[in-house]
Amino acid sequence: MSDWTYVRVDKEDEIATVTIDREKKLNALNPDVIGELGEAFETLREDEAVRGIVLTGAGEKAFVAGADIGVLAQMTPTSGVGVSRQGQEVFRKIERFPKPVVAAVGGYALGGGCELALACHLRVASENAQFGLPEVGLGIIPGYGGTIRLARLVGLGRALELTLTGEMVDAERAESIGLVSRVIPRDGFQEGAVDFARKVTKNAPVALEKALEAIYHSLDSNTVEALNYESSLFGLLASTEDMKEGMGAFQEKRKPSFKGR
Ligand code: COA
Q1: What pTM value is reported for the model?
Q2: Does domain 7-201 correspond to CATH entry 3.20.20.370?
Q3: How do residues 161-218 score in pLDDT, each as one tens digit?
Q4: φ, ψ for residue 36 (rounded to 5)?
Q5: CB distance 137 to ligand 1 below 6 Å
Q6: Cα four-point dihedral sign 136, 174, 147, 34
Q7: What is the Cα 102 distance to its own chain's centre?
Q8: Is 115 a catalytic residue?
Q9: Which of 113, 132, 152, 216 could lock onto 168 through a cystine, CB 3.0 to 4.6 A?
């Protein structure tokens, strides 16, 4: 199913691993890479056998070393808006993806690479991971949602520190500030990331989808509206086979087998 130049998709059981494969340029994001990434996620949305995604970069050196500086250097005020918009739209698609997306960050996650990891639902890091937003050193700002998502995840003070200094943080600090859920040894990192994703995908697929929907919906609405939305999704889940299976399995002291409906 991988018809793309820069994006590879490999499936193992219910997990699809999406690899950004532009290793010689440390997987830097040009418009083609971003476009293909969007297409890959569209395809995986429709694939009922896939219950979760691990997003990673080819090679050990980088997850993604940022937007392609060669492209950015040609920007005009008008085209710059389009450059930002293209990344924002694809990253938003990933953030609102109905199945859990785990970023597996080995090596550099800089600029747009850090923003891409932030758009995923969860992040795990290899011991050699380095996160950073070096944009201000290039005379620009993060333009793929990083000015919004970083502060939501790690708090305003830390987001300001990372954005204004442009300095990198290593895996250990990334874990300590909540930027990643866990650090996994380099040896066996990809398998470790898939194992982590399985901790999520073992749960009821429709419940996972609705949990994501409720959480992200709440970010764009007021408390009363968000609580109403939560209640409606909570009620909706009572109509699913998965709820009957989950509760039935508990009562019968066995493991559930979810069908995703
Ligand atoms: N855009 C375009 N090309 C990039 C890139 C980016 N963001 N990041 C790395 N590359 C390219 C390099 O130009 C180099 O290409 P070349 O071999 O044709 O010269 C190749 O990837 C390898 O990178 P290199 O810089 O030689 O590796 P390094 O180990 O010395 O340094 C980094 C690694 C990540 C520290 C360094 O590449 C870097 O600072 N990259 C830019 C990071 C950045 O500012 N990102 C935000 C952009 S908004």
Answers
A1: 0.97
A2: no
A3: 999 999 999 999 999 999 999 999 999 999 999 999 999 999 999 999 999 999 999 9
A4: -65, -35
A5: no
A6: positive
A7: 5
A8: yes
A9: 132
CA-62 nearest atom, ligand 1: 34
| Alpha carbon nearest to ligand 1 atom 13, residue | 25
**Do 7-201 and 205-251 come out as alike in CATH topology?**
no
Write the CB contacts of 155 (distance below 8 Å, at least 6 apart in sequence): 177
Q: Is the CB of 108 under 6 A from ligand 1?
A: yes
CA atoms of 236 and 142, how far apart (whole Å): 38
Q: How far is the CA of 188 from the centre of ligand 1 (A)?
A: 25
- CA 235 to CA 229: how far, in whole Å? 10
Would you list the domain boundaries of the chain?
Answer: 7-201, 205-251
Residue 214 to residues 5, 42, 161, 232, Cα–Cα distance (Å)? 35, 21, 30, 10
Alpha helices in the chain (DSSP H): 31-46, 69-72, 77-95, 112-119, 146-154, 156-165, 171-176, 189-201, 205-219, 223-237, 241-251
Range 205-251: architecture per CATH? Orthogonal Bundle (1.10)
Clarify whether 175 is annotated catalytic: no
Query: Residue of the nearest CA to atom 14 in ligand 1?
Result: 25
